[in-house]
Amino acid sequence: MAATLEPSEPGKGKPVKLLGILDVENIPCAWDSVLYGSLGSAVAGLGHFLFTSRIRRSCDVEVGGFILVTLGCWFHCRYNYAKQRIQERIAREGIKNKILYESTHFDRERKQTNSSGSN
Amino acid sequence: MAYPFQLGFQDASSPIMEELLHFHDHTLMIVFLISSLVLYIISLMLTTKLTHTSTMDAQEVETIWTILPAIILIMIALPSLRILYMMDEINNPSLTVKTMGHQWYWSYEYTDYEDLSFDSYMIPTSDLNPGDLRLLEVDNRVVLPMELPIRMLISSEDVLHSWAVPSLGLKTDAIPGRLNQATLISTRPGLFYGQCSEICGSNHSFMPIVLEMVPLKHFENWSLSMI
Questions:
Q1: Claim to verify: residue B45 and residue B128 sit in the same structural domain
Q2: Which among B3, B26, B37 has the least Cβ separation from residue A5?
């Protein structure tokens, strides 16, 4: 086994961590959520300022918008990611069982072929 | 195993550890957003010229900062409880292995079929082969079949120890006079390292755990060779 290992993939260097804690490169959906949050916050803050010309309140709207949009994107993306993982697991189990049970009593394709042949 | 200067979790090798990683991501995002909000509020407080020294009541903000943290805590607690109960699901283990903590080594017993038991001592640094991991290698690894649920019964012969394997999401205290149970299942073959996780004396840092997860056929051959 290699005695030295890189912190992340070889050649990529240290991972980027927002506020020193959020590893946006390696956490699924994190980078997209933060990007959409930043975009949404910029739009909301700028729009509020254009309509009201109030700087401090626009900054408050920007931060609030960042939190809300990031959270919304995060939950939406993680929900879809969880569904995808479940589907991947079902597919993986199906492939493994197909190889394992081929030509045995448990083979579903063999049962279907027999039932269609008898019909 | 961990790489040098690692701060995060090791890659998950069991379904429970995968769930824990995702829960950690979820909680970390919430913590990140709260930290951003607090940082922003602090910067506002430091840059304002306004003062208000006669605040009598603040019903609206007090309502918000009571209800919002409660909602956040519920958002964190529900996935946490889900994983907690998932850890205790009934899964019909195929094998039972007992591990006893000693000062300062682990002993393992495979007594389902024949009596097989051995001790697992750390290999001293002076006896390591090139490429071996310092303070992690042992003379007798725990060989187990992969992709099968395994019941680990953990106890101790002397003082408190803790049997931990981070990549499988396992950490169970070894308490003298008590039998603790953990369920182990690995999705991949390979070597999985852990270390004693409860202070137990001078050599507490020098009693590692190494699991060698192999296909069932290899496990059968190994257990036959050991009897």
A1: no
A2: B3
Residues B125, B216: one domain?
yes
pTM (2 decimals)?
0.82
Q: Domain of residue B211: give its range.
A: 93-224
Domain membership flag for residue B3: no
Amino acid identity at A89: R
ipTM > 0.90, yes or no: no
On whether residue B53 sits in a domain, the answer given is yes
Residue by residue, what is the 3-state secondary structure of A34-82?
A: HHHHHHHHHHHHHHHHHHHCCHHHHHHHHHHHHHHHHHHHHHHHHHHHH
Interface touch B28/A70, C-beta < 8 Å: no
Report the residue from B3, B31, B44 with minimal CB separation from A21: B31
**What does the pLDDT look like over B130-189, one tens digit per residue?**
999 999 999 999 999 999 999 999 999 999 999 999 999 999 999 999 999 999 999 999
Residues B77 and B167 in one domain: no
Interchain contact, B33 vs A23, CB within 8 Å: no
Distance CA B12, CA B28 (A): 17
**Cβ contact (<8 Å) for B131 and A1?**
yes
Write the residue in B6, B25, B32 that is nearest to A19 by C-beta: B32
Give the domain CATH number at B152.
Answer: 2.60.40.420
Encode pLDDT of B29-86 as tens digits.
999 999 999 999 999 889 888 888 887 888 999 999 999 999 999 999 999 999 999 9
